Amino acid sequence: MNDKAIWGLIKAEEARQRDGLELIPSENYVSKDVLSAMGSVFTNKYSEGYPSFVGLDADDAEIAEKIMPSLRYYGGQENTNRVERLAIGRACRLFKADHANVQPHSGAQANNAVYFAWCEVGDTILGLDLGHGGHLTHGAPVTQSAKVYNFVRYKTTKNGDLDYDEIECLAKKHRPKIILVGFSAYPKVPDFAKVAKIGEKYGSLLMADMAHVAGLIAGGVHPNPFDFGFHVMTTTTHKTLRGPRGGLILSRGKVGNPLKKPEKTLENIPTLIDRAVFPGTQGGPLVHVIAAKAVAFREALQPEFKQYAKQIVKNAARLAEELKARGFQLVFGGTENHLILVDMVKSFGIDGKQFEAALDKIGLNLNANAIPNDTLPPFRPSGVRLGTPAITTRGLKEKDMVEIAEWMKLAFENREDDEKLEKLRLAVQAFSRRFPLPSDN
Ligand code: DSN
What we know:
Elements: H1 4-19, E1 21-22, H2 32-38, E2 49-50, H3 61-67, E3 71-72, H4 78-95, E4 99-101, H5 107-118, E5 124-128, H6 144-148, E6 150-154, H7 164-174, E7 178-182, H8 192-202, E8 205-209, H9 214-218, E9 232-236, E10 247-251, H10 269-281, H11 287-300, H12 303-325, E11 339-343, H13 344-348, H14 352-362, E12 364-365, E13 367-369, E14 383-387, H15 389-394, H16 398-413, H17 418-432
Parallel strand pairs: 1-12, 5-6, 5-7, 7-8, 8-9
Antiparallel strand pairs: 2-3, 4-10, 9-10, 11-14, 13-14
Helix pairs in contact: 2-11, 4-11, 5-10, 7-8, 12-16
Bound molecules: D-serine (DSN).
The site of D-serine has 4 residues, from loops.
Protein backbone atom coordinates (compact mmCIF):
# COMPACT_ATOMS: atom_id res chain seq x y z
CA MET A 1 0.00 0.00 0.00
CA ASN A 2 1.34 3.42 -0.93
CA ASP A 3 -0.39 5.25 1.89
CA LYS A 4 2.16 4.61 4.63
CA ALA A 5 0.17 6.40 7.30
CA ILE A 6 -2.90 4.22 6.84
CA TRP A 7 -0.86 1.04 6.31
CA GLY A 8 0.97 1.73 9.55
CA LEU A 9 -2.31 2.08 11.38
CA ILE A 10 -3.67 -1.15 9.88
CA LYS A 11 -0.57 -2.97 11.10
CA ALA A 12 -0.83 -1.33 14.52
CA GLU A 13 -4.47 -2.40 14.82
CA GLU A 14 -3.55 -5.95 13.82
CA ALA A 15 -0.94 -5.99 16.59
CA ARG A 16 -3.39 -4.53 19.11
CA GLN A 17 -5.93 -7.21 18.27
CA ARG A 18 -3.32 -9.99 18.39
CA ASP A 19 -1.70 -8.84 21.64
CA GLY A 20 -4.89 -8.43 23.67
CA LEU A 21 -8.16 -10.21 24.31
CA GLU A 22 -11.43 -8.80 22.98
CA LEU A 23 -14.13 -9.11 25.60
CA ILE A 24 -16.59 -6.61 24.10
CA PRO A 25 -19.56 -8.95 23.48
CA SER A 26 -20.54 -7.32 20.19
CA GLU A 27 -17.14 -7.80 18.56
CA ASN A 28 -15.49 -10.73 16.84
CA TYR A 29 -12.63 -11.69 14.52
CA VAL A 30 -13.59 -12.59 10.92
CA SER A 31 -11.97 -15.23 8.73
CA LYS A 32 -9.49 -14.51 5.98
CA ASP A 33 -12.19 -15.34 3.41
CA VAL A 34 -14.58 -12.76 4.85
CA LEU A 35 -11.79 -10.17 4.80
CA SER A 36 -10.92 -11.01 1.18
CA ALA A 37 -14.51 -10.64 0.01
CA MET A 38 -14.77 -7.27 1.77
CA GLY A 39 -11.59 -6.05 0.17
CA SER A 40 -12.69 -7.10 -3.35
CA VAL A 41 -13.48 -5.18 -6.55
CA PHE A 42 -17.20 -5.44 -5.83
CA THR A 43 -16.66 -2.17 -3.99
CA ASN A 44 -16.42 -0.55 -7.46
CA LYS A 45 -19.97 -1.49 -8.46
CA TYR A 46 -23.30 0.30 -8.14
CA SER A 47 -26.31 -2.02 -8.04
CA GLU A 48 -29.41 -0.22 -6.79
CA GLY A 49 -32.41 -2.50 -6.87
CA TYR A 50 -32.63 -6.24 -6.34
CA PRO A 51 -31.35 -9.31 -8.15
CA SER A 52 -34.86 -10.82 -8.44
CA PHE A 53 -37.97 -11.51 -6.47
CA VAL A 54 -38.86 -15.14 -7.21
CA GLY A 55 -37.22 -18.07 -5.54
CA LEU A 56 -34.76 -17.87 -2.76
CA ASP A 57 -32.38 -20.73 -2.80
CA ALA A 58 -30.22 -19.59 -5.66
CA ASP A 59 -27.04 -21.55 -5.12
CA ASP A 60 -27.47 -22.79 -8.68
CA ALA A 61 -26.78 -19.48 -10.33
CA GLU A 62 -27.50 -20.65 -13.86
CA ILE A 63 -31.01 -21.83 -13.07
CA ALA A 64 -31.57 -18.69 -11.03
CA GLU A 65 -30.55 -16.54 -13.97
CA LYS A 66 -33.12 -18.16 -16.25
CA ILE A 67 -36.10 -17.92 -13.93
CA MET A 68 -35.40 -14.69 -12.09
CA PRO A 69 -35.59 -11.30 -13.69
CA SER A 70 -33.03 -8.79 -12.44
CA LEU A 71 -34.50 -5.63 -11.00
CA ARG A 72 -31.45 -3.37 -11.03
CA TYR A 73 -31.26 0.21 -12.15
CA TYR A 74 -27.77 -0.13 -13.68
CA GLY A 75 -26.20 -2.54 -16.18
CA GLY A 76 -23.32 -4.95 -15.62
CA GLN A 77 -25.01 -6.93 -12.87
CA GLU A 78 -24.31 -10.53 -13.88
CA ASN A 79 -21.93 -11.08 -10.96
CA THR A 80 -23.57 -8.85 -8.36
CA ASN A 81 -26.89 -10.64 -8.95
CA ARG A 82 -25.28 -13.98 -8.25
CA VAL A 83 -23.57 -12.70 -5.14
CA GLU A 84 -26.74 -11.26 -3.69
CA ARG A 85 -28.82 -14.34 -4.52
CA LEU A 86 -26.27 -16.56 -2.80
CA ALA A 87 -26.32 -14.33 0.27
CA ILE A 88 -30.13 -14.33 0.38
CA GLY A 89 -30.45 -18.10 -0.05
CA ARG A 90 -27.84 -18.85 2.59
CA ALA A 91 -29.32 -16.41 5.10
CA CYS A 92 -32.78 -17.93 4.67
CA ARG A 93 -31.42 -21.44 5.24
CA LEU A 94 -29.48 -20.34 8.28
CA PHE A 95 -32.43 -18.71 10.05
CA LYS A 96 -35.44 -20.62 8.63
CA ALA A 97 -36.73 -17.46 6.97
CA ASP A 98 -38.82 -17.04 3.82
CA HIS A 99 -36.94 -13.94 2.79
CA ALA A 100 -33.74 -12.08 3.55
CA ASN A 101 -32.81 -8.55 2.69
CA VAL A 102 -29.02 -8.50 2.80
CA GLN A 103 -28.59 -4.84 1.86
CA PRO A 104 -28.86 -2.92 5.18
CA HIS A 105 -25.59 -1.14 5.82
CA SER A 106 -25.95 -1.63 9.58
CA GLY A 107 -28.24 -2.87 12.32
CA ALA A 108 -29.63 0.64 12.81
CA GLN A 109 -30.50 0.84 9.10
CA ALA A 110 -32.14 -2.58 9.29
CA ASN A 111 -34.32 -1.54 12.24
CA ASN A 112 -35.27 1.77 10.65
CA ALA A 113 -36.29 0.02 7.45
CA VAL A 114 -38.63 -2.32 9.36
CA TYR A 115 -40.27 0.62 11.17
CA PHE A 116 -40.62 2.42 7.84
CA ALA A 117 -42.07 -0.69 6.18
CA TRP A 118 -44.84 -1.21 8.72
CA CYS A 119 -45.56 2.07 10.51
CA GLU A 120 -46.90 5.52 9.68
CA VAL A 121 -45.53 8.64 11.36
CA GLY A 122 -46.69 8.70 14.98
CA ASP A 123 -47.47 4.97 15.22
CA THR A 124 -46.55 3.22 18.44
CA ILE A 125 -43.69 0.74 18.82
CA LEU A 126 -43.14 -1.16 22.06
CA GLY A 127 -39.50 -1.95 22.86
CA LEU A 128 -37.12 -2.69 25.73
CA ASP A 129 -35.80 0.36 27.60
CA LEU A 130 -32.17 1.19 26.74
CA GLY A 131 -31.26 1.30 30.43
CA HIS A 132 -32.60 -2.24 30.85
CA GLY A 133 -30.54 -3.70 28.02
CA GLY A 134 -32.44 -2.46 24.95
CA HIS A 135 -30.78 -0.62 22.08
CA LEU A 136 -30.53 3.01 21.00
CA THR A 137 -32.54 2.26 17.85
CA HIS A 138 -35.40 0.85 19.91
CA GLY A 139 -36.64 4.33 20.59
CA ALA A 140 -34.08 6.11 22.75
CA PRO A 141 -35.21 9.75 22.81
CA VAL A 142 -31.96 10.99 21.21
CA THR A 143 -32.59 9.07 17.96
CA GLN A 144 -34.22 10.16 14.73
CA SER A 145 -36.75 7.30 14.84
CA ALA A 146 -37.95 8.49 18.26
CA LYS A 147 -38.95 11.76 16.57
CA VAL A 148 -40.89 9.89 13.87
CA TYR A 149 -42.61 7.12 15.86
CA ASN A 150 -44.11 6.93 19.31
CA PHE A 151 -41.88 4.56 21.25
CA VAL A 152 -43.18 3.10 24.47
CA ARG A 153 -40.72 1.17 26.59
CA TYR A 154 -40.98 -1.85 28.86
CA LYS A 155 -38.38 -2.87 31.43
CA THR A 156 -36.92 -5.96 33.08
CA THR A 157 -38.03 -7.31 36.45
CA LYS A 158 -35.77 -7.74 39.49
CA ASN A 159 -35.03 -11.36 38.64
CA GLY A 160 -34.03 -10.42 35.11
CA ASP A 161 -37.05 -11.50 33.09
CA LEU A 162 -38.51 -9.12 30.56
CA ASP A 163 -41.52 -7.66 32.37
CA TYR A 164 -44.16 -9.66 30.48
CA ASP A 165 -46.99 -8.23 32.62
CA GLU A 166 -45.87 -4.73 31.70
CA ILE A 167 -45.63 -5.71 28.01
CA GLU A 168 -49.22 -6.98 28.14
CA CYS A 169 -50.43 -3.85 29.97
CA LEU A 170 -48.70 -1.48 27.55
CA ALA A 171 -49.90 -3.47 24.53
CA LYS A 172 -53.46 -3.31 25.79
CA LYS A 173 -53.20 0.44 26.39
CA HIS A 174 -51.30 1.52 23.26
CA ARG A 175 -52.14 -1.19 20.68
CA PRO A 176 -48.59 -0.95 19.25
CA LYS A 177 -48.05 -1.54 15.55
CA ILE A 178 -44.84 -3.37 16.48
CA ILE A 179 -43.78 -5.28 19.57
CA LEU A 180 -40.01 -5.47 19.52
CA VAL A 181 -37.93 -7.95 21.49
CA GLY A 182 -34.24 -7.23 21.23
CA PHE A 183 -31.29 -6.19 23.30
CA SER A 184 -27.67 -5.20 23.40
CA ALA A 185 -27.02 -5.76 27.09
CA TYR A 186 -29.30 -8.52 28.35
CA PRO A 187 -27.78 -11.75 29.67
CA LYS A 188 -30.94 -13.90 29.63
CA VAL A 189 -33.04 -15.68 27.00
CA PRO A 190 -36.42 -13.99 26.36
CA ASP A 191 -39.64 -15.97 26.43
CA PHE A 192 -40.59 -15.43 22.78
CA ALA A 193 -43.75 -17.54 23.11
CA LYS A 194 -45.13 -15.24 25.82
CA VAL A 195 -44.48 -12.12 23.75
CA ALA A 196 -45.92 -13.74 20.60
CA LYS A 197 -49.14 -14.47 22.46
CA ILE A 198 -49.44 -10.82 23.49
CA GLY A 199 -48.65 -9.63 19.97
CA GLU A 200 -51.26 -11.90 18.43
CA LYS A 201 -53.87 -10.73 20.94
CA TYR A 202 -53.35 -7.05 20.10
CA GLY A 203 -52.59 -7.39 16.39
CA SER A 204 -48.95 -6.22 16.52
CA LEU A 205 -46.17 -7.10 14.15
CA LEU A 206 -43.68 -9.25 16.07
CA MET A 207 -40.14 -8.09 15.51
CA ALA A 208 -36.97 -9.52 17.07
CA ASP A 209 -33.66 -7.63 16.97
CA MET A 210 -31.28 -10.53 17.46
CA ALA A 211 -28.06 -8.67 16.64
CA HIS A 212 -26.27 -9.97 19.71
CA VAL A 213 -27.35 -13.59 19.54
CA ALA A 214 -27.73 -14.23 15.78
CA GLY A 215 -24.69 -16.51 15.81
CA LEU A 216 -26.12 -18.43 18.76
CA ILE A 217 -29.41 -18.87 16.88
CA ALA A 218 -27.56 -19.98 13.75
CA GLY A 219 -25.55 -22.40 15.88
CA GLY A 220 -28.66 -23.86 17.52
CA VAL A 221 -27.93 -22.76 21.11
CA HIS A 222 -30.53 -19.99 21.36
CA PRO A 223 -34.21 -20.13 20.40
CA ASN A 224 -35.15 -18.82 16.96
CA PRO A 225 -37.98 -16.23 17.24
CA PHE A 226 -39.48 -17.55 13.97
CA ASP A 227 -40.29 -20.80 15.78
CA PHE A 228 -42.69 -18.81 17.99
CA GLY A 229 -44.55 -16.91 15.29
CA PHE A 230 -42.37 -13.79 15.01
CA HIS A 231 -42.72 -12.10 11.62
CA VAL A 232 -39.42 -10.23 11.30
CA MET A 233 -35.91 -10.65 12.63
CA THR A 234 -33.18 -8.04 12.25
CA THR A 235 -29.54 -8.50 13.05
CA THR A 236 -26.10 -7.19 12.44
CA THR A 237 -23.77 -9.60 10.71
CA HIS A 238 -20.57 -8.84 12.61
CA LYS A 239 -21.24 -9.93 16.19
CA THR A 240 -21.72 -13.59 17.15
CA LEU A 241 -22.47 -14.28 13.45
CA ARG A 242 -18.81 -13.45 12.68
CA GLY A 243 -19.32 -11.74 9.35
CA PRO A 244 -18.53 -8.30 7.98
CA ARG A 245 -19.87 -5.13 9.62
CA GLY A 246 -23.43 -4.80 8.29
CA GLY A 247 -27.14 -5.49 8.75
CA LEU A 248 -29.66 -8.13 7.70
CA ILE A 249 -33.46 -8.38 7.76
CA LEU A 250 -35.12 -11.78 7.77
CA SER A 251 -38.84 -12.25 7.39
CA ARG A 252 -41.66 -14.70 6.99
CA GLY A 253 -44.28 -14.21 4.26
CA LYS A 254 -44.64 -14.12 0.49
CA VAL A 255 -41.82 -12.67 -1.61
CA GLY A 256 -43.23 -10.27 -4.22
CA ASN A 257 -42.08 -7.76 -6.80
CA PRO A 258 -40.55 -4.79 -4.97
CA LEU A 259 -41.30 -2.53 -7.91
CA LYS A 260 -45.03 -2.82 -7.16
CA LYS A 261 -46.43 -1.33 -3.97
CA PRO A 262 -48.14 -4.16 -2.09
CA GLU A 263 -51.02 -3.98 0.35
CA LYS A 264 -49.88 -3.58 3.95
CA THR A 265 -50.51 -7.12 5.16
CA LEU A 266 -48.42 -9.49 7.24
CA GLU A 267 -48.14 -11.77 4.23
CA ASN A 268 -46.52 -8.98 2.22
CA ILE A 269 -43.90 -8.15 4.85
CA PRO A 270 -40.95 -9.37 2.73
CA THR A 271 -41.88 -7.06 -0.15
CA LEU A 272 -42.71 -4.15 2.15
CA ILE A 273 -39.27 -4.56 3.70
CA ASP A 274 -37.47 -4.70 0.35
CA ARG A 275 -39.15 -1.44 -0.65
CA ALA A 276 -38.37 0.12 2.72
CA VAL A 277 -34.65 -0.68 2.39
CA PHE A 278 -34.39 0.47 -1.23
CA PRO A 279 -35.50 3.04 -2.21
CA GLY A 280 -37.10 3.78 1.19
CA THR A 281 -34.09 4.35 3.39
CA GLN A 282 -30.92 3.45 1.46
CA GLY A 283 -29.29 3.98 -1.91
CA GLY A 284 -26.70 1.69 -3.50
CA PRO A 285 -25.95 -1.55 -1.67
CA LEU A 286 -22.39 -2.38 -0.61
CA VAL A 287 -21.84 -5.41 -2.83
CA HIS A 288 -18.38 -6.14 -1.42
CA VAL A 289 -19.98 -6.37 2.03
CA ILE A 290 -22.84 -8.49 0.70
CA ALA A 291 -20.23 -10.86 -0.77
CA ALA A 292 -18.57 -11.04 2.64
CA LYS A 293 -21.96 -11.66 4.28
CA ALA A 294 -22.51 -14.57 1.86
CA VAL A 295 -19.12 -16.02 2.84
CA ALA A 296 -19.92 -15.67 6.55
CA PHE A 297 -23.36 -17.30 6.12
CA ARG A 298 -21.72 -20.26 4.38
CA GLU A 299 -19.26 -20.55 7.26
CA ALA A 300 -22.13 -20.41 9.76
CA LEU A 301 -23.89 -23.24 7.92
CA GLN A 302 -20.94 -25.60 8.57
CA PRO A 303 -21.08 -28.09 11.48
CA GLU A 304 -18.04 -26.44 13.12
CA PHE A 305 -20.05 -23.29 13.66
CA LYS A 306 -22.42 -25.22 15.94
CA GLN A 307 -19.42 -26.21 18.05
CA TYR A 308 -18.29 -22.59 18.09
CA ALA A 309 -21.70 -21.35 19.27
CA LYS A 310 -21.82 -24.01 22.01
CA GLN A 311 -18.36 -23.06 23.20
CA ILE A 312 -19.27 -19.34 23.38
CA VAL A 313 -22.06 -20.17 25.83
CA LYS A 314 -19.91 -22.60 27.86
CA ASN A 315 -17.13 -20.03 28.11
CA ALA A 316 -19.54 -17.29 29.20
CA ALA A 317 -21.05 -19.51 31.91
CA ARG A 318 -17.60 -20.41 33.25
CA LEU A 319 -16.36 -16.81 33.12
CA ALA A 320 -19.45 -15.72 35.05
CA GLU A 321 -18.72 -18.32 37.75
CA GLU A 322 -15.06 -17.35 38.01
CA LEU A 323 -15.93 -13.66 38.29
CA LYS A 324 -18.51 -14.34 41.00
CA ALA A 325 -15.94 -16.36 42.94
CA ARG A 326 -13.73 -13.25 42.95
CA GLY A 327 -16.36 -10.87 44.28
CA PHE A 328 -17.78 -9.48 41.03
CA GLN A 329 -21.52 -8.91 41.40
CA LEU A 330 -23.30 -9.92 38.21
CA VAL A 331 -26.55 -8.28 37.14
CA PHE A 332 -29.30 -10.95 37.34
CA GLY A 333 -26.77 -13.29 38.97
CA GLY A 334 -25.22 -14.82 35.83
CA THR A 335 -25.68 -15.42 32.13
CA GLU A 336 -27.69 -17.62 29.79
CA ASN A 337 -26.04 -16.42 26.59
CA HIS A 338 -22.68 -14.92 25.56
CA LEU A 339 -22.88 -11.77 27.64
CA ILE A 340 -22.17 -10.77 31.24
CA LEU A 341 -23.13 -7.51 32.96
CA VAL A 342 -21.24 -6.59 36.12
CA ASP A 343 -22.34 -4.00 38.67
CA MET A 344 -18.95 -2.44 39.47
CA VAL A 345 -20.29 -0.02 42.06
CA LYS A 346 -21.86 -2.83 44.04
CA SER A 347 -18.85 -5.10 43.48
CA PHE A 348 -15.97 -2.79 44.33
CA GLY A 349 -17.23 0.80 44.66
CA ILE A 350 -15.85 2.07 41.34
CA ASP A 351 -17.79 2.98 38.19
CA GLY A 352 -17.67 1.09 34.91
CA LYS A 353 -15.55 3.67 33.10
CA GLN A 354 -12.79 3.46 35.72
CA PHE A 355 -12.66 -0.31 35.36
CA GLU A 356 -12.75 -0.13 31.55
CA ALA A 357 -9.73 2.21 31.66
CA ALA A 358 -7.76 -0.11 33.98
CA LEU A 359 -8.44 -3.13 31.75
CA ASP A 360 -7.50 -1.18 28.60
CA LYS A 361 -4.05 -0.76 30.12
CA ILE A 362 -3.53 -4.51 30.32
CA GLY A 363 -4.97 -5.42 26.91
CA LEU A 364 -8.36 -6.70 28.01
CA ASN A 365 -11.12 -4.76 26.25
CA LEU A 366 -14.66 -4.51 27.51
CA ASN A 367 -17.07 -1.60 27.76
CA ALA A 368 -18.65 0.47 30.51
CA ASN A 369 -22.41 -0.07 30.43
CA ALA A 370 -25.53 1.06 32.23
CA ILE A 371 -27.24 -1.45 34.49
CA PRO A 372 -31.01 -1.54 35.12
CA ASN A 373 -32.17 1.53 37.08
CA ASP A 374 -28.66 2.97 36.99
CA THR A 375 -28.23 6.08 39.10
CA LEU A 376 -25.04 7.12 37.26
CA PRO A 377 -25.01 8.89 33.86
CA PRO A 378 -24.61 6.92 30.56
CA PHE A 379 -21.02 8.03 29.95
CA ARG A 380 -19.93 7.00 33.45
CA PRO A 381 -22.34 4.17 34.26
CA SER A 382 -22.23 1.70 37.15
CA GLY A 383 -21.54 -1.40 35.13
CA VAL A 384 -19.35 -3.10 32.57
CA ARG A 385 -20.45 -5.45 29.79
CA LEU A 386 -18.29 -8.30 28.55
CA GLY A 387 -18.68 -11.51 26.61
CA THR A 388 -17.02 -14.48 24.98
CA PRO A 389 -17.73 -14.51 21.18
CA ALA A 390 -14.34 -13.10 20.14
CA ILE A 391 -12.15 -15.01 22.58
CA THR A 392 -13.95 -18.22 21.61
CA THR A 393 -13.05 -17.55 17.98
CA ARG A 394 -9.42 -17.26 19.13
CA GLY A 395 -9.76 -20.78 20.55
CA LEU A 396 -10.04 -20.13 24.30
CA LYS A 397 -11.82 -22.79 26.33
CA GLU A 398 -13.44 -22.90 29.79
CA LYS A 399 -10.14 -23.37 31.68
CA ASP A 400 -8.83 -20.13 30.15
CA MET A 401 -11.68 -18.19 31.77
CA VAL A 402 -9.97 -18.68 35.14
CA GLU A 403 -6.99 -16.67 33.94
CA ILE A 404 -9.16 -13.88 32.52
CA ALA A 405 -11.18 -13.53 35.72
CA GLU A 406 -7.97 -13.45 37.75
CA TRP A 407 -6.46 -10.71 35.54
CA MET A 408 -9.64 -8.70 35.88
CA LYS A 409 -9.46 -8.91 39.66
CA LEU A 410 -5.76 -8.00 39.68
CA ALA A 411 -6.38 -5.06 37.34
CA PHE A 412 -8.95 -3.73 39.78
CA GLU A 413 -6.64 -4.19 42.79
CA ASN A 414 -3.70 -2.54 41.01
CA ARG A 415 -5.62 0.06 39.02
CA GLU A 416 -3.47 2.90 40.40
CA ASP A 417 -0.15 1.11 40.09
CA ASP A 418 1.13 1.53 36.52
CA GLU A 419 4.12 -0.72 37.07
CA LYS A 420 1.96 -3.63 38.17
CA LEU A 421 -0.48 -2.96 35.32
CA GLU A 422 2.41 -3.10 32.85
CA LYS A 423 3.43 -6.52 34.21
CA LEU A 424 -0.13 -7.70 33.77
CA ARG A 425 -0.18 -6.33 30.21
CA LEU A 426 2.89 -8.38 29.36
CA ALA A 427 1.27 -11.49 30.82
CA VAL A 428 -1.91 -10.91 28.79
CA GLN A 429 0.19 -10.29 25.68
CA ALA A 430 2.20 -13.51 26.08
CA PHE A 431 -1.00 -15.48 26.64
CA SER A 432 -2.84 -13.85 23.68
CA ARG A 433 -0.03 -14.54 21.24
CA ARG A 434 -0.64 -18.26 21.77
CA PHE A 435 -4.02 -17.81 20.04
CA PRO A 436 -3.59 -16.44 16.50
CA LEU A 437 -6.22 -14.29 14.81
CA PRO A 438 -8.23 -16.21 12.17
CA SER A 439 -6.77 -13.84 9.56
CA ASP A 440 -3.22 -14.94 10.56
CA ASN A 441 -3.84 -18.45 9.23
N1 DSN B 1 -22.87 -1.13 19.47
C1 DSN B 1 -23.54 -2.41 19.57
C2 DSN B 1 -23.17 -3.14 20.79
O1 DSN B 1 -22.06 -2.98 21.23
O2 DSN B 1 -23.96 -3.89 21.33
C3 DSN B 1 -24.99 -2.30 19.44
O3 DSN B 1 -25.30 -1.55 18.32
